[in-house]
Amino acid sequence: MFSGVWTALITPLKNDKVDYDALSKLIDFQFKSGVDGIVPCGSTGESSTLSHDEHKEVVEFCVKQAKGKIRVLAGSGSNSTKEAIYLTEFAKSVGCDGALLISPYYNKPTQQGLYLHFKAIADKVDIPIVLYNIAGRTGINIEPETVAKLVKDCRNIVGIKEASGSLDQMSRIKLLSPNIQLISGDDALTIPLMSIGGCGIISVLSNIVPKDLVAMVKAFNSGNMKEAQKINYKLLPLVKAMFCETNPIPVKTAASILKMCDLGFRLPMCEMADANRTKLEKAMKDYGLI
């Protein structure tokens, strides 16, 4: 359902407003590049600084622009269960193929609190749900045992975007929940994760080089490990540069360098330090992008 390459879509901003012309071109670029789906309003989409109205407008716009060509997995998580239900209900109402639910941030719930939070959303909204585990941003890890309990009790919780950075944790998730769709949330770990049973990547990097990500995953799935490894190692310096500052600062900078959109952020996100921009430009030049 959510296998392959899904792009964690940036939200282009111009004069502090969502630039829908640029967003339309970005979606078309992703479709023509062969990705399996797009993920608007996640961390990369700066959802934390979008108003509710903007969030809903971006999600609905993406669904309309996708026009059945590619699927849409909408970010709809929150640290408030009621708010997450509201956003997930909206995602379903406009025709999204699923909802990506980040674990609650700042309030640091217990594992029981996490279970009750996700179960309440899954019980309320009948839409395929992908959990999103990224303790580095939220301050709390969704333990594999909690994931297993949720998968057992909620038929529409079908996947997890794993960005813990721990292959041990990812292996335990797959051991306890063999049927879950295990999706990489880290561009550097796509091939390692797929080797332990993962099904693909929700990628930051595919905003700018989607064809290469698609080729890598297809090579792996066809059993051509040498080709998959070759692409993976070619991508790694670019991956490193793409995360030299907080996501999505580098990827939006890269997109602006490639004339895909204006360079616009919502505070507290801001432009890159000059030294890091130089590193990013070098990585892009070495890769052949500029």
Low-confidence stretches: none
What is the overall number of helices? Answer: 12
Broad structural category: alpha/beta
Mass-distribution shape: globular
List the helices and strands in order: EEEHEHEHEHEHHEHEHEHHHH
* Backbone CA Rg: 18 Å
Write down the overall mean pLDDT.
Answer: 97
CATH homologous superfamily placement: Aldolase class I
Q: β content, as a range?
A: 5-15%
CATH topology: TIM Barrel
Spatial ordering of strands, largest sheet: 1-4-5-6-7-8-9-10
Instruction: Name the helicity range.
Output: 40-55%
The largest pleated sheet is described as: 8 strands, parallel, barrel
By DSSP, the count of extended strands is 10
In the CATH scheme, the class would be: Alpha Beta
**CATH architecture designation:** Alpha-Beta Barrel
Number of self-contained structural domains: 1
User: How many angstroms separate the termini?
Assistant: 35 Å
